[in-house]
Design brief:
This protein has 3 helices and 8 strands, in the order βαββββαβββα. It is an alpha/beta fold. It has a 4-stranded mixed beta sheet, covered by helices on one side. Strands 5-8-7-6 form a 4-stranded mixed beta sheet, with helices on one face. The longest helix has 12 residues.
């Protein structure tokens, strides 16, 4: 059966104390788009999905004892979220900063060919945004770093 929701192969669940505020903030700061928002009869959020590019995230509440916002666990993260942008990473970073994101790492070119920045949202989730800027071979990275690398970008 085909997926009627047309979801990507991998999505991530991100849990918030206030998921409704998170929907607004993620849309405004990072450019996610609401795809599905389900509320119960009392107007409480039951489930939501947001998209950016071909990725999706589920934005949800702390609905069980085994899920928590970083705001509920001393700002610790047990996962990292990586979002690849097609372009405009520096502008994206500045837009996120103006919307209240804490920029943990300013945009910077990486040895492996991506430009990246890291930001923390209001409840403490850490997001890494990447933009490929140049193609770099495994041999070039190994020669520059001394690292041993198994597999490399489709090789």
């Amino acid at each position: 059966m085909q997926d009627p929701f047309r979801r990507a192969t991998l999505g991530a669940g991100v849990f918030y104390r206030d998921p409704t505020a998170a929907l607004d903030w993620l849309e405004r700061a990072f450019g996610f788009e609401r795809h599905t928002v389900v509320r119960d009869r009392d107007g409480e959020l039951v489930h939501s999905e947001m998209r950016i590019g071909d990725a999706y995230i589920i934005v949800d509440s702390e609905w069980s004892s085994h899920v928590a916002s970083p705001a509920s666990v001393g700002a610790r993260n047990t996962q990292a979220l990586y979002i690849k942008l097609k372009g405009g990473l520096d502008d994206h970073c500045e837009h996120a900063r103006q919307a209240g994101a804490e920029i943990l790492q300013e945009p910077e070119d990486q040895i492996y060919g991506d430009r990246t920045y890291r930001a923390r949202d209001p409840e403490g989730h850490v997001w890494t945004f990447i933009q490929p800027v140049r193609s770099v071979s495994r041999e070039e990275v190994q020669n520059l770093t001394g690292w041993s690398i198994e597999g490399w970008h489709g090789e």
